[in-house]
Amino acid sequence: MKKREAPAAPPPENYINTIVTDSRKTRDELRELQTTQLKKLVSWAYESVPFYKKKYDECGVHPSEINSLDDITKLPIIGKADLKGLPAGDLIPSGSSPDEFKLLRTAGSTGEPLTIYRDSHSINRIRDYNMWIFYRWCSGNPLSSVLYIMTVSDTSLERMLLSRFPVEEDRIMDVMLPTHVHFQYLQRYVPQYLSTYPSVIRNLSIELLRRKKRADFVKLIHSTAELLDEPTKDMARTAFPNARIVQSYGSHEGGLMAFQCPLHDYMHICSNSVYMEVKEDETVKGSTHAIITDLTNYATPIIRYAGMGDLIKKSDETCPCGIGYPLITKLEGRIIDSIILPDGTGISPFTVTLILKEIRGIHKFQIIQNELSSIEIHVVPVSKSTGERKELELHIIQELKKTIARGLEFKINWVTEIQARKPGSHKVPVVICNLKTEEILRAAKKDEDDID
Questions:
Q1: 362-371 and 374-381 as β-strands: parallel, antiparallel, unpaired?
Q2: 29 and 45 both lie in a single domain
Q3: What is the pTM of this model?
């Protein structure tokens, strides 16, 4: 099949101007823009990407039937299972090479790692969106001293974005480094702005409190990728007393989907880049979950994707901040706790999830910590063979001990499905730490004599 050119995108330098202009549009103008973007994307996906051509033909739907946003319901909903394990040739435009795009592998924050591709225009747009939002969060006076603690893998969206930001490399820290190293860098650079994951915020807060310190120099904390729960917020408010805590809602699949209002706690949907539907959740009565269409990515199109598993509540209210995008008034998303070592220090959950996602033979996984000395790993294996499971178990433990050899024992439990945190709940966190904060701080207190 002859390679087709993707619809033209504005030059990278024009994205911020486009974002500013679109943020002032009325709801009707935004819907008109989204309709135009959707029609182009669906047509492109059907004509160029084998997965969508096959999927839409099976469902008996054609791009010519999509003439408004309401028509999107004619298209099938897709999930992780539809995309997981597909060869690159099915996910990208026919006639293209994977090398033409950026390969993204999720960190496994849902327990089901996934591989997709993004084009440069899409990544640059997300970059410029983040820069514009940061500027708004800072009320037009950007903080100059920054520290990012992120996944630095070449296949992570965060790494790709940071490589295009005007930020020095020594201000980007690997999330997999121990918490005491993160703390040292926090003390060394004295950043006004800290951008990281909720699990790191939690670990740093515990580390500060165990040392009887406060990071009062931090003015703004940006939390991303996971859900920032209230207990972590409360702990962070004590450890970082002068910091405003803001969140963005994004993923490798959907890109940047929403960001916290500069003036309020609600989140604005990035409506010029994403179309977000809500559908009644079958497991949680009265709740709706997000169905995402990324309107910007032509490498691996994401159209009517329900694989996020996040519950949201949308509002058509007009926000007084002047940004015209619709609001998310409630978000219950991906939860991922820290892993606590016997000495009370926390390590990033990605230390484990990034290892597990690279091991073949694992379909899904979940990590549970009930004791300081051990963690359980629930695994849905690909194979039902007892011999292959035994070999896989030894391989998992061997790989984990290479990285985590500080007094933790590992127990592998074979399961047929990963369970929610509570019966009847939609929340299926990949890492669950059932240790109480008081227990963690007691363990840390015993180790204080070893702190330099």
A1: antiparallel
A2: yes
A3: 0.79
